Amino acid sequence: MKSLILVLLMLHMTNQIKYDTNCSDCPPLNCMMYICFCDADWDICNVSIFKDEVLNMTCTLRDKVKGFNSSDLHITYGTGIEVSNNEMMVIDSSSLRLTKHMHTMEHVGLTNFVCYHGEKIMEKTDVRVDYRPSAIKNFSCTIFNWDEGMLCTWNLGVKYNNSRAISVSLLMKSGDITGQYNPVCDRDQNNNLICNHTWNHTDRVIFDRSYLNFTVNVTNKCCTEVPVSKQTENLIIIQKENVRPDKVHNVTVSSVTSTCVSLNWDHLKRNRSKLFTVRTTTNDSNWDDAQVEETPDTNITLCELKPYTRYNFSFETRPGKDVGYPSDLVYISAITDIDKPSRPPEFVNSGYQVIDEDCINNARKITVLWKAIAEEYQNGPFNGYYISASSPDNGLLKDYHVNSTGLDIQHQSIDIPCDQPITITMKSLGKAGYSNTSTIIIPKANYISQTEIAGIVIGVVIFVVICITIAVCLASKTLKLLQMAIGSHNLYIFYTDQMYGVISRCDMSSDLVKMRVFYGDVWSLCWLDLDLVSDS
């Protein structure tokens, strides 16, 4: 019964694996100085098997070996990994049967199976494990410029160990015509087998169809007498989703202002629907922050740009929005025109400091303080700053053009009047003109002017004169006084031939009252002892 089972297993294995049966020669590793020590034989050797199959091999002790029994044999593979007991079976006293499911192998490729008795190598043989053909992955095609050529690529799906045993064919159905092609397959950096085939306009193949239908056939001849194949069918490529247009040409800058640039270009496929993507950046080494504009036209005007700035533009063509593949990029650059500065100076520390406020001859010295305008706001060649001082009474008093010192905080000294508020106005000055203005108002100085001093002196003199006159009048009893009661206060009106006035008794506990006296055209203020005044 056991013999029948072995025969059936061998017949099944014959269809599933490749092997040699002439295995009596000792492997070189078992020989030394032309003397070989082979004490057992594998029934098959140089085996090639798919990873999803079962390996059946028998290690049989040679007749010359005395005192050994097959129950003392054990098997290892690879780097000395022991085959488990449930994968080995003793057939008789001299033979040990290995039945190993190859899907438990850690890796595909060539591995060595060794039959041991204790630590003594009895026999060894190589087994090559590989994958059965499987469906391909990542099939894609790129159609160049609608009708000028095509490239299809795909992944064979698994990392076959023996690429020389793999054959691949590609079928393409275009209309009623089916063509068969032999693609090129190579390993990439990750050891995947990547295949591709390229057509061009000389191949007399029509790519300009709504869709194309492909079939890929993969055959692995490594492990069976009859090669095993796998077909992946109905790989549909829709043209509009897989076109890669040619790049644009004849790109020109048609006009430039300080904030706008207009661009024109052309494309060879004028009758095809296309979408152009124009990217704008000031950094030609990093386009991640680029401004993106899309248009179906072959011209565009880009605005809201910075004056006096170099801009780089890239052009990309696609068949439509999020459709197909992008073309190669085309680049061009332009520099926007200069413009007046976009910012006025910024006052700092309240905008000024008082250096000298003695106000001699109605003049004081101040220093205007401002922050230098940053280069990004200068918008072209920069000529400095304009400063003016003006007053409500006299208008423009003086103005200056100040060169930039290169310092972050800049200043300018100005002499201004003390007796009125002064408006300081500043502008940034570029080659193209002035910026908007910054303004501060400096209040008038806290002092008594010469005019006010003269008025005080005159008032004092008049006051003294009036007081003397009143005293003379009282002494001569020529001052007449009228009394009126208003509320709780007594109001006295006095008059003489030369003057008149009003006396209000503010301090009822005192006979001294405050008196406003009108003499000529001047009102004066003095105190009067009412005991000197006689009622009449």
Automatic annotation (TrEMBL):
Membrane-traversing stretches: 453-475
SUPFAM superfamilies listed in its UniProt record? Fibronectin type III
Q: Gene3D superfamilies annotated for this entry? A: Immunoglobulins
Q: Residue span of the signal peptide, if any?
A: 1-19
- The organism's superkingdom is given as Eukaryota
Does the keyword field hold Membrane? Answer: yes
Under SMART domains, the record lists: FN3
The UniProt keyword set, sorted, is: Membrane, Signal, Transmembrane, Transmembrane helix
Q: Determine if Transmembrane is one of this entry's keywords.
A: yes
What sequence ranges are listed for the domain Fibronectin type-III? 247-339
Q: What is this protein called?
A: Interleukin 6 signal transducer
Q: What organism does this protein naturally occur in?
A: Mytilus galloprovincialis
Q: Output the lineage of the source organism.
A: Eukaryota, Metazoa, Spiralia, Lophotrochozoa, Mollusca
